[in-house]
Amino acid sequence: MRCLVVYDISDDKLRAKVADILIDYGLDRVQYSAFVGQLARTHIEEMSLKVKRRVGRAKGAKVLVFTICQKDWDERIDIP
After folding, report:
1. DSSP secondary-structure letter at 79?
2. How far is the C-alpha of 26 from the C-alpha of 80, rounded, in Å?
3. pLDDT one-digit tens code per residue, 13-29
4. pTM for this one?
5. Per residue, what are the HEC states of 14-55?
6. What whole-number distance in Å separates Cα of residue 54 and Cα of residue 42?
7. 60-70 pLDDT, tens per residue?
8. CB 36 within 8 A of CB 73
9. How many CB atoms are closer than 10 A to CB 39?
10. Which of 23, 65, 68, 77 has a CA positioned 20 to 30 A from the CA of residue 43?
C-alpha cells in the first residue's frame, strides 16, 4: 500500500527526527516535508506510532499520513 506522509514541524531537531523515522521505513522524500513509499498496513501503523511518540505534544506540530490506492496513485498529476 502506498502512503504519503506530510508534516509541519517548526522545531528543527524534531523535524529531522521525524524525517529519519520515515527514511528508516524506506519512504522517499518528494518535498522538504513530504515522503511517499510502499508499506504494508502494519508498517504504516507501526511508523505512525513511532512518529506520534516522537512528536508527542510538540507545540504546533502536525503530521498527516494518507494511504493511496493504486488507482488514485496512477491518476496523480506530476507537475515539474
Report:
1. -
2. 23
3. 999 999 999 999 999 99
4. 0.91
5. HHHHHHHHHHHCCCEEEECCEEEEECCHHHHHHHHHHHHHHH
6. 18
7. 899 999 999 99
8. no
9. 19
10. 77
Q: For residue 57, with 0-12 CB atoms within 10 Å meaning exposed, 13-18 middle and 19 or more buried, which class applies?
A: exposed
DSSP single-letter state for residue 59: T
Give residue 40's pLDDT.
96
Please, are residues 10 and 61 in contact by the beta-carbon 8 Å criterion?
A: yes
Closest CA to 43 of 67, 18, 73: 67
Three cell numbers written together for 38: 510502499
* Cell 499520513 found at: 65
Q: Is 10 helix (H, G, I), strand (E, B) or coil?
A: coil
Question: Which uninterrupted H or E stretch holds 12?
Answer: helix 12-24
